[in-house]
Amino acid sequence: MRMFRGFWRVMGVSLLAGVLLVMPAAPGRAFGSVRPVPGPVLRAFDPPAKDWQPGHRGVDLAAKVGTPVRAAAAGRVSVAQVIGGRGVVTIVHGDLRTTYEPVRASVRVGQQVRAGDVIGAVQAGHCAGGCLHFGLKRGDQYLDPLGDTYGQGTGPVRLLPASAVALARKLAAERAAALAAGDVPHGSGVLLNPVGGRITSPFGRRFHPIFHEWRMHEGVDLQASCGTPIRAAANGVVRSVSYDSSGGHRLVIAHAGGLTTHYLHAQGYRVHRGQKVKRGQVVGRVGSTGWSTGCHLHFTVKVNGRLVNPAAYL
Ligand SMILES: [Zn+2]
Ligand SMILES: [Zn+2]
């Protein structure tokens, strides 16, 4: 906080309440003057190297459901809404934004808040036992909202209770196992890799990049930039072309042997229901529609309606 004190000495105490105080988040320094909830860190900041990869784009602070959530710094509420069943509050602080979820908001969009003002209450659903996911962004870049106050560098080290350490270890082990499971060399080659990209998120249980919880990933995510041609994985007949809020633009192709292939999040498709397609034929373009954090192809394979690991078929 030395930097803050120097700043105040320069500015004097003439700054009026309500004046936006924007401190650039220097590396290794916690953002803001208030921790939104007092609990320990259950899951640390772990940003992915690439936007579409799994990771943790904030910190999880232990907090029972109903715990008051406080603004980390002064700012203006820009989001106070329910997204995917979870309340989200975002506060703008100059070129930085803090996000708090899942939170039942008690503020409205446009409202000015001071550091420490209660902005809502913690809702269930983010971690077992309850927690607040606290995020910090500048533009599209995710930053660590706690900087080095969490167990590194010269900041105060917060000791975790044994239960939190055990949970953090368990989550880390599960994540490592899930990533290892995606490291399948090559499968049977029955299916063509529709975009030719590597698997960035494997089939099976994973930490969901948007909902920040362990969920079943019903396919593989294949790396591909926006607009990359999507090719039919095998000869077949288009069963459906549809749009929904989770999968975005979705295509299903039926193949011989009870096999179906499912393509999600595309910009769109150039085929229609009932159309015959050949292996390798371009059927659409990669996009980021639906619940997606960046362009990629989500690819699901089913055999007689049952999910299988696509990696075994590629
Ligand atoms: Zn989280
Ligand atoms: Zn996916």
Automatic annotation (TrEMBL):
Protein known as: Peptidase M23 family protein
GO molecular function per UniProt: metalloendopeptidase activity
Pfam families (UniProt xref): Peptidase_M23 (PF01551)
Keywords: Signal
Residues annotated as domain M23ase beta-sheet core: 55-145, 215-310
